[in-house]
Fold Methionine--tRNA ligase, cytoplasmic.
Amino acid sequence: IAAAADAWARGATVLPKPWQPQKPVLPVEGMRNVLITSALPYVNNVPHLGNIIGCVLSADTFARYCRLRNWNTLYVCGTDEYGTATETKAVEEGLTPQEICNKYHAIHADIYHWFDISFDYFGRTTTPYQTTIAQDIFQRLLARGFLLQDTVEQLRCEDCQQFLADRFVEGTCPFCSYEEARGDQCDKCGKLINAVELKNPQCKLCRGVPVVRPTQHLFLDLPKLEERLEPWLERSWAAGDWTANARYITRSWIRDGLKPRCITRDLKWGTPVPLDGFRDKVFYVWFDAPIGYLSITANYTDQWERWWKNPQQ
């Protein structure tokens, strides 16, 4: 308290000069280097105040705090643009998925600029860097034996000649009988649904009746990681600052045993899978989207690995 009172009495002239990082902002030897991201907003809507408060504003506040502390700070974000929701919105508006992304990315950027969010860079996930980095991570997983193939039963619309992603199917909820349940969850009772469990399913594109067909997909072999993950979690819980909720959810996954997780989808709009037999598929958005943090940084600077592969800094 005495030190704070003394600093206050001496005034702003004795404060250290604000740090002015070079452009692009890169880690600096001997400084505290802080990389900040906020959850990538999905591109198929107009952001509202709740979206901004939910993640963007808190990250912006922290970025401003870090800069006031004269820490070398980089704050990046961008729109998440691949996946079923974009295809659905494109059908609704009579545009291509790329046109939808271009339209709503510009809207997002304008709104965050209006709110004076202090991004160093606001990018997007539909870029060549996204494809390059996502496919590289996939190839590394494949080479190390962390992927497996399996057959999945999926709804296929014979009229549209395509397998239907979860959001392209509507039907009656098998739990509460709500008649407008989606192929991934019921908005009335909140339960998660496998699309093939829907009663009276309909294709949202043509209103035809889909049929169940087998299709091959690729999975992350998460059970292979359990032995290495558990001791890492124990160390991380001891040294880190996990919330009680995060600990509880993670413990429940470990307790019940990790399950293989599907990382491919029968869609057109996404990062292509670079493997024979799967080249007509794309990566599932929840495999692809987190890689967007890396690719957005790569679009900001070709020295992006100095931020993402530099634990010493």
